[in-house]
Design brief:
Blueprint (H helix, E strand, L loop, with lengths): L13 H10 L7 H14 L4 H14 L5 H4 L4 H8 L8 H19 L4 H8 L5 E2 L13 H12 L7 H10 L3 E2 L6 H7 L3
Parallel strand pairs: 1-2
Helix pairs in contact: 2-3, 2-6, 2-9, 8-9
Length: 192
Amino acid sequence: MSKLQRCAWVRPDPLYEAYHDEEWGVPVHDDRVLFEMLNLEGAQAGLSWYIVLKKRDSYRAAFDGFDPEKIVRYNPRKIESLLQNEGIVRNRLKVEATISNARAYLALREKGTTLDGFLWSLAGGKPLQNRWTAMGQVPAKTPVSDAMSKALKAQGFKFIGTTICYAFMQAVGMVNDHFVDCPRHEAVRKLR
């Protein structure tokens, strides 16, 4: 895919281009991937997604593949080692939020609810299809992301404000925000 065909936000970088071309906007129904992306979007708060994308492999290694059952057992020593890890965003609140989110995820699962079912029900159960032609049209938040943020907070999740939730929805295909002139728009539209 040539750089002229991609959505306007894509940097001319092989990592960013691959993310756009292969992942962004593709509907995700795997709880572990949803949990990872929710935490990575939280880590991105106040930064660019590109920074977190470059650190994603380091995040996966540092957070045990985003395995909630391992993350809930993190002790103060582990937290301090994470805060020294140059491969991730070294922000105590963001690191501790990932641990809180693991607890909330496991509590949800103990109630018999999957993260997939919980999140997708908030988004209406299927991808929302937008038809944007310019960056200025794309919202930073919507009533759906507002509701998702509120529902996640009620379950004990942290670093999941409405803007983070909307970026998460875009990333995991709950909303198709590829520009209409991007070939990925039509390809993603067909996915569920």
